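Reading is simple: each integer encodes one residue's backbone shape. An example follows:

___
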Amino acid sequence: MELILAKQSIEIKCRIRASIMMGNYEFYYAGGLLCALAGQQPKQPLKPRELYTFVQPLLDAYETKNEREAYLVKMIQEYKVSDEYDAQMEELLAMGLASE
């Protein structure tokens, strides 16, 4: 998979506020982005359900600064995490952590 596609997908979805996350690749980037915004650094590697558990308290505690961030939180809240996992997901998490 081209990692940039998951990153761009989340960025576009947050900008237009009209879609949902479609898989764990997007979830890992979005989770990393939320952690970066909230100033949190998860220990890696994280399996999907571990990342989901890590970001759950952030969803309630993080005060969004704009509609883009609010939609990011909404997408993560509504996402149903699966057990699908590969090394590229950790790369996407790192990309999200490096973004803002």
Summary: The chain is about 65% helix and 0% strand. The radius of gyration is 12 Å. The helical segments are 3-16, 24-38, 48-61, 67-78, 87-97. The CA atoms of residues 32 and 94 lie 6 Å apart.
